[in-house]
């Protein structure tokens, strides 16, 4: 479908098109459409911008990844189709591999996501040769060189159950999820309430700037962070945004 650039919802429609193309290419699962719709709705009621609480969380997330021994970026179908190039660049600047990890598991889909990512980086793991105990879904299947040994995992668009298991396995979890009320957001150590299409480019900029800092400085940034306060700010932003809209409509 051809969408004119002048369309007021151009960006959103283009993103939808990408997801649909992702379905056709066998990269996105049909359930990915539903997840995307939920994400969009939350984006709409927060002004479709990277709010202050998101920028703060993104900066601290980068600091944590920079001081981690084995940071890993988990990538599912939606994340791959929306931000493959940017995820690859982030992986390079913070020295973290991308690992294909999907909820609706099919070896062919893992392969397709892997091939899509390798257009942009060679640092992609998808061996599916280890298991995280305590998880029934296919997301328990991980790479022995990646999430299995990771101390910090960046999980864009993640499901709550898996977030919980990663935490039980002692890993620090950084989520990217537009819903500040999701179990994932509530459970993560750092909850980035932002669209993945904006969050990753922001994180690349932070990483370039913070790569020069020494470890003690980065550690201080991580230690002074309060994720509950960030989540609370995100929820309040929805109220504030909607109150403003309610007044404007009169
Ligand atoms: P949970 O299991 O954590 O309670 P859920 O069951 O509501 O969450 P899932 O389908 O498991 O939702 O996960 C998808 C999540 O990804 C949703 O919460 C949605 O808000 C979020 N999401 C979808 N698209 C984007 C996007 N482009 N950027 C950021 N977040 C997104
Ligand atoms: Mg869920």
Q: Average pLDDT, to the nearest integer?
A: 95
Straight-line distance between termini: 36 Å
Strand order of the largest sheet: 3-2-1-6-7-8
- Radius of gyration over alpha carbons? 18 Å
Q: Portion of residues in helices?
A: 40-55%
Largest sheet, in brief, is:
6 strands, parallel
* Oligomeric assembly: single chain
The total beta strand count reads 8
What's the number of helices? 10
Number of domains: 1
| CATH-defined topology | Rossmann fold
| CATH superfamily annotation | Phosphopantoate/pantothenate synthetase
Q: β content, as a range?
A: 5-15%
CATH class: Alpha Beta
Describe the structure in brief.
The chain contains ten helices and eight strands.
Give keywords.
single chain; 250 residues; Rossmann fold; two-stranded antiparallel ribbon; 10 helices; binds adenosine-5'-triphosphate; binds magnesium ion
Task: Walk me through the structure.
The protein is of the alpha/beta class and 250 residues long. It has one domain (52-236): Phosphopantoate/pantothenate synthetase (Rossmann fold). Helix content is 54%, strand content 11%. The chain is built from 10 helices and 8 strands. The chain has helices spanning 10-24, 30-44, 52-67, 77-94, 107-117, 160-168, 183-187, 196-210, 215-223, 227-248; strands at residues 71-75, 98-100, 124-125, 130-131, 141-142, 152-156, 172-176, 190-192. The strands form 2 sheets. A 6-stranded parallel sheet has the order 3-2-1-6-7-8, sandwiched between helices. Strands 4-5 form a two-stranded antiparallel sheet. α6 (160-168) links the parallel β6 (152-156) and β7. α1 (10-24) runs antiparallel to α2 and α1 packs across α4. The chain is globular. The model has no long low-confidence stretch (mean pLDDT 95). Magnesium ion is lined by residues 159-160.
